[in-house]
Amino acid sequence: MTVFAMDAIPRISRAQVFDALSSMANIAGYKASIEAANHFGRFFTGQITAAGKVPPAKVLVVGGGVAGLAAVGCCKNMGAIVRAFDTREAVREQVESFGAEFLTVHVEESGEGVRDGTVCPAVQRDRHLDHHRAHPWKESSVANHEANGRVDETRFGHR
């Protein structure tokens, strides 16, 4: 019997069939979107009823990696107004191809060469505080948090 660790396979184009990290991140982004919609309290889509008009939800997706793009696609399909940001400028085109708005983040480091643009916790905390001051319009957010190689899809919030 031959056995190999799926998470130890290099993340190159020839080995995409075996890429367990990307497939699990895709599921994590989708699940985070569904969980955020469940906790939101109303439909993500806008509605016009006899009682009046309900605007669509405004969702912010933090991170434009595999999980972030899955979340953008899922929220967009549910009818929400989606905005996303990432430290890597190269992600802009991918986010915009889903029909979401890309928010530019002004940081010193580019996130290039680091898996999913991961930065130190102090910088993440400062960015989080700056983000909430700068984007009061946000009603729901979906964030992909990765620690020690594990993707935590359950961390999201709404106002």
Describe the structure.
It holds the Pfam family AlaDh_PNT_C. InterPro entries: AlaDH/PNT_NAD(H)-bd, NAD(P)-bd_dom_sf. The protein is of the alpha/beta class and 159 residues long. It has a single domain (15-158), classed as NAD(P)-binding Rossmann-like Domain (Rossmann fold, 3-Layer(aba) Sandwich), CATH 3.40.50.720. Helix content is 33%, strand content 20%. It has helices at 20-40, 66-77, 92-97, 121-134, and strands at 47-49, 52-54, 58-62, 81-85, 101-103, 140-143, 145-147, 150-152, 156-158. The strands form 3 sheets. The chain has a 5-stranded mixed sheet with strand order 5-4-3-6-9. It has a two-stranded antiparallel sheet with strand order 1-2. Strands 7-8 form a two-stranded antiparallel sheet. Helix 2 links the parallel strand 3 (58-62) and strand 4. Helix 1 packs parallel to helix 2 (66-77). It is globular. The protein starts with 19 loop residues before the first helix and ends with a strand. The model is unreliable at 146-159 (pLDDT under 50).
Brief write-up:
The chain has 159 residues and is an alpha/beta fold. 33% of the residues lie in helices and 20% in strands. The chain has helices at 20-40, 66-77, 92-97, 121-134, and strands spanning 47-49, 52-54, 58-62, 81-85, 101-103, 140-143, 145-147, 150-152, 156-158.
